[in-house]
Amino acid sequence: GFSGIVLQDVGATGLIVGGAYALVSVFDLLTSRKIVEKALSRKLVHILSGLLFLAAWPIFSTSTGARYLASLVPTMNFLRLLLNGLSLTKDEALIASVSREGKPEELLRGPLYYVVVLMLCTISFWRDSPVGIISLSMMCAGDGIADIVGRRFGNVKIPYNADKSWAGSVSMFLFGFLVSIGMLYYYWILGYIELEWIQTIENVALVSVVATVVESLPTKSTLDDNISVPLSSIITSLLLF
């Protein structure tokens, strides 16, 4: 019945909000105890929060309004980031966990773009479209892993961008591709999407190449990776799927 559907979707939203809060709290604790360094903690939250949100879509009902209730999760984070980024409120833990240098205005860039992409993919594509699944996988897993690997093993730089390395780009392609395939298989098994797998693997590989090339470009000062990577993935996926 209608009340059961509403209860399911509201419960799912509450569960995800609680899970997201727990995830950030765990990494804040690990960082404060110096078990995990701050930069690594921030990137792991970047990777895991988006992917866990994406993986949780099936717990919502099949109603047409389910995607909008799901989008409330990144919308609430959007409002938190906006208020703190504008210094209208001051959440020291939030600022410390998602900013590079501990400045409130940093929340209005990469972190804000990240949740906006989550909102748009949830509403625009949802779980019956490969486009949103692939794009979020590339942004969360691909871009996130590229930064972690690049910082540690990125001694050999890409010729046209001294801020990017071959190690980071290769890891972005591999993890973005593998996580995208894994997520598509997950939704395929659950019956939300129908795929012809040989063609799908080829398409996802091409999307991964495009997103990796875009991420490697020297556009850091003009275009954030949390915009360029999902946007290029969305456009390429729309053309291929």
Question: What would your notes on this structure say?
Answer:
With 241 residues, the chain is mostly helical. The chain has 2 domains: 1-112, no CATH class; 125-240, no CATH class. The chain is 73% helix and 3% strand. It has 9 helices and 2 strands, in the order ααααααββααα. It has helices spanning 2-32, 38-55, 66-85, 92-98, 110-124, 130-153, 166-189, 197-216, 225-240, and strands at 157-158, 161-165. It has a two-stranded antiparallel ribbon. Helix 1 (2-32) packs antiparallel against helix 2 (38-55). The two termini are 34 Å apart. The model has no long low-confidence stretch (mean pLDDT 92).
Net shape: globular
Task: Tell me the domain tally.
Answer: 2
The average pLDDT is: 92
- Strand order, sheet with most strands: 1-2
The overall strand count is: 2
Proportion of strand residues: under 5%
Any idea what the radius of gyration is?
Answer: 18 Å
Number of helices: 9
Please give a quick description of this structure:
By secondary structure, the chain is mainly alpha-helical.
Secondary structure elements and pairings:
Layout lengths: L1 H31 L5 H18 L10 H20 L6 H7 L11 H15 L5 H24 L3 E2 L2 E5 H24 L7 H20 L8 H16 L1
Antiparallel strand pairs: 1-2
Helix pairs in contact: 1-2, 1-3, 2-6, 3-5, 5-6, 5-9, 6-7, 6-8, 6-9, 7-8, 8-9
